[in-house]
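Spend some time on the protein that follows and explain the fold to me:
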Amino acid sequence: MPADQADIVAWIEEILRSERDITLSSPVLEVFTYEDDELFWPALYFADGLAVNVLWSKADGGKRAVGFKLSEGMTPPAELSAFKWARQRSKLAGEIRGTYFVVKCLVDSFGSADVTIGNR
């Protein structure tokens, strides 16, 4: 995994730990990142079929949330059993199950609390 992707994985892991005391046990298979002037939106895809994404608006007071999606037929991992999961049917994707939480603490790309990420 390239260093910049390892930094993204560490950043998301820090958000999960600091916000909800969540540590996922499955290994990360793929890292995807979308970024523009207003938005940073990384996603992690895990070996067990879980996808985790962080929607991070760069604007002060902007939207910041962590979303979880399960592969079809997958049961939620034990680490996420406290969440309520919504279901959505799609002809293209089948059944999608997902949940999210709003990020309240600001975490920069190095895991320091209370620091906003700037332009990466």
